[in-house]
Amino acid sequence: MTPHTLAVTPARIENDRRILELLAQRFPTISAASTEIINLEAIQNLPKGTEHFVADLHGEHEAFRHLLKNASGNIKRKVTELFGATMRESEIRNLCALIYYPAEKLQLIKSTEEELDDFYSTALHQLVKVCQTVSSKYTRSKVRKALPREFAYIIEELLHESAADYDKVAYFNRIIETIISTGQAEAFIIALCNVIQKLSIDQLHILGDIFDRGPGAHIIMETLRDYGTWDIQWGNHDVLWMGAAAGNDCCIANVIRMSLRYSNLTTLEEGYGINLLPLATFAMETYADDECELFIPTVLQAENAHTEKTLRLMAKMHKAITVIQFKLEGAMIEAHPDWKMDDRRLLHRMDLAAGTVEIDGKTYQLSDTNFPTINPDSPYELTHEERHLLKKLHHSFAVSSVLQRHVDSLFSHGCMYGVYNSNLLFHASMPLNADGMLREVNINGAYYKGRRLMTQIGLTLRSAFNDDTPAPDKAFARDYFWYLWCGADSPLFDKDKMTTFERYFITDPEAHHEEKGWYYKLRDDERVIDMILDEFGVEGTQRHIINGHVPVRTGKGESPLRAGGKLMVIDGGFAKAYHKTTGIAGYTLIYHSSNFELVEHQPFTSVEEAVNNGTDIVRTTKMVEQTARRVRVCDTDKGRELQSQIDELTELLYAFRHGIIKEKRL
After folding, report:
1. For the chain: N or C, fewer Cβ within 10 A?
2. pLDDT single digits (tens) 176-208
3. CB count in 10 Å sphere of residue 14
4. Residues 467, 558 contacting (CB under 8 angstroms)
5. In what order do the strands lie in the sheet with 423-426?
6. Least confident among 242-256, 291-305, 318-332, 650-664
7. Nearest-CA neighbor of 416 among 233, 236, 243?
């Protein structure tokens, strides 16, 4: 809709008068309002910005930061388009490495380059061209906001002039020469590279699971806090850490257990300052004569990362917190009978004398029967020492200012789902019945399904951190974090049970089976996917659901595309623990103005390798879907917002011209 086609009437003006009076404070004259309409109409006809979708980062901070720096290969593609006919592949790799890691690459170049000024001149000319290309989709105003303040004016001049313009060639070249002669070349190159990185991704969508597995979840969160436009749809591992920050002891125990299982204490100790010394002391005393072989970490973050003595200590700590977790969970389940999880209370079903446990009417042999802290008459009761330990751990999570700050960011940038430009984003699942219809789920005595369910979950989780939440509701919200982690009706889990106990203590693989919910069984059905899209009000001829959570076994021929391409599952296994499962090292789904591309990653080696040899993590790029025509801003969610602003300004013009609202001459 344009200003010339909007039907403006006096009645409409009168109905919107209060809004228009407020708008007139910002645009007080006909000239000001007209100028803004012209500006917004021009923006509407720009190509849409590039969106990147990633999922299940699982603490792999180095690979994630490299992904942001290389824009999932998009920067190299643009460099190749610009210079592929004039530069060798090795030169393109080196220029890309400079863009990704400018400070590090410059140090290397300065140690080997004899004609440094010539290098600076060539690099600056090349970088300006790349920056002009990646900024071409945006207005000058948006580009200006991405520029570093100290070089903003000069960069803006270079971006909007050309060395090929005969009348400006001397002007352009003299700027470059002066940057070098004043000793600012290095700082200017770094600034240009950072601008290229910023402008190469317009919107970053993270489909959950920043935490666990890898060592740098806290680094990812700090990176995001300094990043531009991003959002997150919470994953089950994110919610577990959010619950730990809220003071849920079951979540705290789970977080520590998994950190020990994957020999990843960096996030806990270095990232969030969690004091694990009390747990180590308790474990050494309680399991002094127990080798705890079942609890030796099986996935190490680095070869020879731990000594044998350290591994033995970690195994004892691992067992100690696991037993405490099962006790806490048993008490939690008993306190919430409406969750219908009593089959997960297994400690009282153990016969330690016989070395067996009874589950679902079947008796299994236990692979470990040394549980000195479990009282057979009251197996879910914590010992005095366990209560004392738990109090210290609870306090450590509560006072971690960094963890609380990161959880604040998860809330301010995230929720259970998101709808962006005809794409419905959620981490894992949508609870369904066997007939494919939306399943009603009980939350604190009320039932919800579909969009209302996801919205209510978000409201419930936020209430755990709100000071004005009534105490009973706050206590339920705090408990509910744990249910979302492992409850059968949780959209973040959606299985009949989580067989943690069985995987530790029973060797029979039959006991490890977890039956997936109906969403996972029906997600290839286009009618089911369309029904869910309709439920969330997702419109468009090319609309999709995008999920993470379930690793796609690419190496075994699985496809991330389902339901005729209407569902995209983009968990490609960023975490090293999943590389063998997926056969790759992660996906990025990229939504350009003309197509969807799926980028497969290979394992990230190191920053040093990327700087020295120009290695990258992009393996293959596949076009998933071609848009019918190039998508412009006016076709997007942002475009609809801008059109609303144009309509309001058009009404304001009418009101000015007919004397309904008076212009304010400054």
Report:
1. C
2. 999 999 999 999 999 999 999 999 999 999 999
3. 11
4. no
5. 417-420, 423-426, 544-547, 567-569, 561-562
6. 291-305
7. 233
φ, ψ of residue 3 to 5 degrees: the values are: -60, -25
* CB-CB contact of 280 with 311 (8 Å): no
What single-letter DSSP state applies at residue 270?
I
Please identify which residue in the block is written with the tokens 């006919």: 85
φ/ψ of 99, rounded to 5, equals -65, -40
State the distance between the two ends of the chain, measured CA to CA, in whole angstroms.
31
Closest C-alpha to 493, from 244, 231, 242, 235: 235
What is the C-alpha separation between 191 and 184, in angstroms, rounded?
A: 10
The rounded radius of gyration (Å) of the Cα atoms in the chain is: 29
451: Cβ–Cβ under 8 A, 6 or more apart, which residues? 417, 535, 536, 537
Q: Which residues of 164-176 are buried (b: 16+ CB within 10 A; e: fewer)?
A: eeeeeeeebeebb
420-441 pLDDT per residue, tens: 999 999 999 999 999 999 999 9
Q: Which two tokens stand for residue 194?
A: 């950072």
**Going by C-beta distance under 8 Å and a sequence separation of 6 or more, which residues neighbour residue 554?**
560, 572, 582, 583, 584, 600
Is residue 301 scored above 80 in pLDDT?
no
* Cα(194)–Cα(101) distance, integer angstroms: 9
Per the structure block, which two tokens stand in for 203?
A: 């919107």
Long-range Cβ contact pairs of 144-147 (< 8 A, separation 24 or more)? 146/195, 146/198, 146/199, 146/228, 147/191, 147/195
**Rounded distance, CA 323 to CA 326, Å?**
5
Measure the CA–CA gap between 406 and 241, rounded to whole angstroms.
10
Residue 39's closest CA among 645, 635, 664?
645
101: phi then psi, degrees, rounded to nearest 5 = -130, 70
Q: What is the pLDDT of residue 303?
A: 47
Return the sign of the alpha-carbon dihedral for residues 19, 25, 27, 30: positive
Q: Where are the beta strands (DSSP E) in 444-533?
A: 446-448
Local confidence band at 467 (pLDDT 50, 70, 90 cut-offs): very high
- In sequence order, what are the residues at sequence separation of 6 or more whose Cβ sits closer than 8 angstroms to the Cβ of residue 137? 46, 47, 48, 49, 50, 202, 593
Task: State residue 299's pLDDT score.
Answer: 59
DSSP run (H or E) holding 612: helix 607-613
Backbone angles phi, psi at 309, to 5 degrees: -65, -40
Q: Where are the beta strands (DSSP E) in 251-306?
A: none
**Stretch 565-593: mean pLDDT:** 86
Separation of alpha carbons 216 and 232, rounded Å? 17
Q: Which residue type, as a one-letter code, is found at position 52?
A: H
Model pTM? 0.93
Query: Which residues, in sequence order, are bridge partners of residue 561?
Result: 568
Structure-token pair, residue 241: 């850490």
Q: How far apart are CA 476 and CA 101, in angstroms?
A: 47
Q: How does DSSP classify residue 636? A: S
pLDDT of the residue at 1: 39
How much is the pLDDT for 157?
Answer: 85
Question: Judging by DSSP bridges, how do beta strands 446-448 and 441-443 pair with one another?
Answer: antiparallel
For 614, half-sphere exposure in the C-beta direction (CA atoms, 13 angstrom radius) is 14
Out of 69-73, 160-164, 314-318, 585-589, give the one with best mean pLDDT: 314-318
Distances 126 to 301, 489, 522, 665 between C-alpha atoms, Å: 39, 54, 50, 47
Q: Which two tokens stand for residue 482?
A: 């744990």
